[in-house]
Amino acid sequence: MKKKILQQKSVNILTRKSSGASTKDILAKLISRSHKTQKNSDITAIRTQVEQTPVAQLTEIFNCDICEFKTSRKRNILAHYKAHVAKQVFCCNNCNYKCTKKKYMIYHMKIHTGEKPFSCNVCEYKCIQKSTLQIHMKIHTGEKPFACNICKYKCIRKGDLQSHMKIHTGEKPFPCNICEYKSSRKSYLQTHMKLHTGEKPFSCNICGYKSIRKGDLQYHMKTHTGEKPYSCRICEFRCIRKSSLNNHMKIHTKEKSFS
Fold first, then answer.
1. Is the pTM of this model over 0.70?
2. How far apart are CA 226 and CA 232, in angstroms?
């Protein structure tokens, strides 16, 4: 009976329109009330009500009222909310990282210790998680299970395909607050911000070269080693970057991309 009453109250709160409160404020009240009770039956009732609420009503309210957490996915806010209620938040002592599962914290701590227990048997790549190594191995096998249904793009990770699709939709949800730059990925924006701060965290131990991206430093190091892994199958041309080889091949195909 108590569970039904709580569910009915939840329905009344979520569907009330006459008070003028936004859906964000409504969900905040619901979460705040559940934080005070902290009972499993209450949590289950509220979780069920939120899950059954149409997505259209929740698109603007994926913000935690207890902390600064924000998300665009309903399942993420539910997991985050449950962590608050159950008080199962694990905090890193070295940085601001927080998570809801102990295993995630164990993986995270290896970033600080430098531990990389999983290594590739083809190249020198090492990583923290076994799943990351499995993704890396697809580079050697050439497997690209995720394909774009608009163009011929294929990739190893599902997240890469999701970012690629924004090229077709034109969506760039991450804007720079200094200039007009916008990007489809948060990581691209973080790299871009270093242009404004002048930060160049990757430096060559042979010369004075510094770069914003780790990949740029890796390419630079090949100038010292003389390594040129990309070669033309028609002539003797060799180069450091795959993009340079692609441009070179246009000489043979007579392709002129720019008019």
1. no
2. 17
